[in-house]
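@channel anyone free to eyeball this complex?
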Amino acid sequence: MNLALAVLVDGVVYSSWLFLIAAGLTLIYGVMKILNMAHGSFYAIGAYSGASLIGVYFAGGNPPWASYLLLVGAALVAGLIVGLLIERGFLRFMYGRDEVVMILVTYGILLILEDAIKLLWGVDPYFAYQPYTLLGRTKIGGLSFANYDFMLICVTALVALVLWWSLNRTRSGKILQSVIHDREMAGALGVNVTKIFTITFVIGAFLGAFAGALTAPGISVVPGIGIEVIILAFAVVVIGGLGSVGGAFVGALIVGLSRALSVHLYPDGELFVIYGVMGLVLAFRPQGLFAIAGARKI
Amino acid sequence: MLKTISKMAVYGAVAFGALTATAQAADEYKLGLVTFLSGGAAGPFGVPAKNGADLLVDALNAGTVPAPYNKVGINGVKINPVYVDEAGGATKQVSEYRNLVERQGVNAVVGYISSGDCLAVPGVAEEMKKVTVLFDCGTPRVFEEADYKFVFRTAATATMDNVGAARYIAEKVGGLASVSGINQNYSFGHDSWNDFTTSLEQIKKGVDVSTKQFPKIYAGQYGAEVSALMVNPAEVVHSSFWGGDMEAFLLQGAARGLFEDQKVLLTCGESALYKFADNFPEGAIVGARGPNGVFAPKSELNDWFVKEYEARYGTKPTYPVYHMVQAIMGLKLATEKAAANAGEIPTDEAVAGAFEYLEFDSPAGKIAMTNGNGHQAVQEMVFGQVSKENGEVVMKDVVRYAPSCVNPPNGVKAADWIASGFEGAVCN
Amino acid sequence: MLSKNQIFVVAAAALMILAGLVMPYWFSFLVTVALAKGLVVLGLVILMRAGLVSFGQGLYYCAGAYAVGAFSDYFQTDNVLLLVLVAIVCGLVISSIVGLLLSRYRDIFFAMFSMAFSMILYGVLVKSAALGSSDGFNVTKPSLFGWAAEFNGTNLLSYWVAIILACVAGAIIWRYMRSPMGMTGEAIRENEIRVEYLGVSVQKIIYIKYIIAAVLASVGGSITAMTVGHIDPEMAYWTTSGEFVFIALMAGTGHVAAPLIGAVIFELMRTFAFQLSPYTWQMILGIALLSIIIFLPNGLWSLTDKFKKGAN
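replying in thread with the prediction:
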């Protein structure tokens, strides 16, 4: 009983973390067909911005509750700046290249950003643990869990809901969907695809930075954290079906729960879980779980 | 086609010649220094070690280090450090090692934090006959699997961390009935856990292992692992985590109260003791991979070193700094011992000969190159428990283990030695 | 009968072999490792010409290296011919099984699935204490029936082997690319369904290409193992595979020589970035990569066209 509960809570917490990271990645892919390696850097930049601001904020003796808003603000500003800078300043000149070339382009950006982060923030760890410990903990069935993690689940649910709603229930969301399904046709019908690209990329960058900023309180922000999450996010997105936000949601849940199960029952398998799950899903659903159907070119 | 390629070759050759034409001044001692300058190991290990090297090299060149290191530079020749990032894995490091020696013409190489690099580099060091001092890596395999002439390691192996850890908890933790472990899923983590559990079996029979977790290195999220540790409680949680992983684990564990009824044992804990002081749980058992940092024996040399380091970098030196500094000091002494006259740089053969079985004083006390046929240092091992007094971290219940108590004798493999019940160990 | 180009290749190879005696050792080492990687990239290029990008060539690179390491350790042999053969067989066996599954996949799914396989090998090796876990283990230096080709204390055998293997592989692949089956690759990239309608089994052709690429990758791995003298699971990690894709795109897929030369340039670029800027070499590498993509969209090899235009 205890075990099942632990698996469930741990799995869902991990899943929501995964989804936060993967959401921006899959959105950018869906609209722009760019598998954005630099998404890891957005995550790292969000984490660094959040952690360094929180550090300054608490050193100033300010009211603690506002630190959560500060995290969101930090992500918003960081995502906006980096997203705009990269899309307007660089990526827009590269559109139309091969998908693989675009992966390499974003890999180049990742390399540059990794060192830029190091030059900006140094290599020493940043901590922003106050928001994490502030909320205390709850005991469920004899096990304590951090309330911050429950908040993370709620935030993720909210993000998923907002994304779903704005994609499916708003006018601009439907325009976005039309671009996802057929870029050329949407353009021909008068959709300003360039503008949509910019907005999508900035939103994606914000989501990446947001994931980083929300993760920062529970970890130590150090060089290289961005690279570590890329493959995790890729796997989640591929399992769910590239470009599908709902797919990423389900993919994150599957990976998160299987990982928790493995940690509790078979710790040695932890390293394989994500690739095993990805292999299994791809073996039976070669396009991922919720791939958007595309016409075959004849 | 033919023309094109030959043309390209000519351009290539010109560019190549321009790049490799680096000047070789005879009046300096070029010291190759390899540590992590990027990635997750840069913050806790690589950059502090580089800072330590910078400090010591400057002080040596100025001649301000206390005796017996008061000679300028190395044997009167000023040191010119050349840094290389250790990132990128063993293949790249072997390649960069050759470049350091051949292209940059270094007189010696001090470096390597990763055990994989420490296993890969000695082969090429022997081939190039260049004195090489491994400064921080922990694996005992380096001198167990091969004999080297030009390769030395001035820090003790990681064996003593975990033998010492097992001895310490057997002695200091009352009612010890079970242990659990959380270690990174790579060699250092596996070896640490193995050494720890096999040692514990020898020292205190009947201690159960309640769970062992091996999350991926740099995973950062330990929610499920913390739950697993809570579902299977033990008296002591063993961990060889370091850097961001250790800090994240401590944060996430503390937020859920893991350390309130289980004692955590961190073999590399000291490396985050100052930056992370607020979040170390009270009573955490901490090691420093030797008598480093807070555990350094009192000496004039250490007082000088700590004072200088704090003045320059605003924080106390941690164990990687000690490891780096003692490596350069050992190299300096060996070189000076081998030299006939001041101001000359002796041959690598002579330095290697002088380095064997060298004993010297460092900020971390006495270093004795007694293992690996005179190439591998042994040191004492120290463990203590974190306690906070007026916001300051102090160590209580400190226990020191003599080198012969936690290191195998020369020529005996660490694993065999532990399995034999520490045959020949002399403890005080 | 040898064509002008073939004579040129043989002459260039002979020159490189002789140059090994006089060039600085660090350079011959760099060329050896670069050619080893170049062979892996050559295989990747074959797949890329068919529109498939593998992010998992590290699987065979690593498997080839470990096959050499394990075989030489177990049978106490350092015969270079035998060791390369073992690597080839190893690559052949694994790829003919894995390829059955992977040849059904395209695009990013092929990339990710191939990466999953190489990461699983990585995980298995990290878990294998007997193989040194993540630290790996040392591999003996090769010899040719006891002859180690020692000159001034440096072992040139692996350098020579790398040159010869690169030329042989290059020549074979050059022929293959011009064969009907090789040509079909581009047709598949352009339109797979039309190829099927022409009565060709696309899956079979991709399967064969996959096996060729795998064998080349394991040969590359075997050379690396013998040259570096140390192997570790990092060789199967996704960053290693990513580096191969990096080199392939940087070099261009226009010619079989492109990946080999591109790999040497890449290694040179990286080692000098390391030397000039130990703290920010990634940034230099990133800028170089982006510059190549912007200014030479078809890779470094497209420079040769510019040279040709200049020469005429």
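from a first look: Strands of chain C lie at 137-138, 150-151, 154-155, 230-231.
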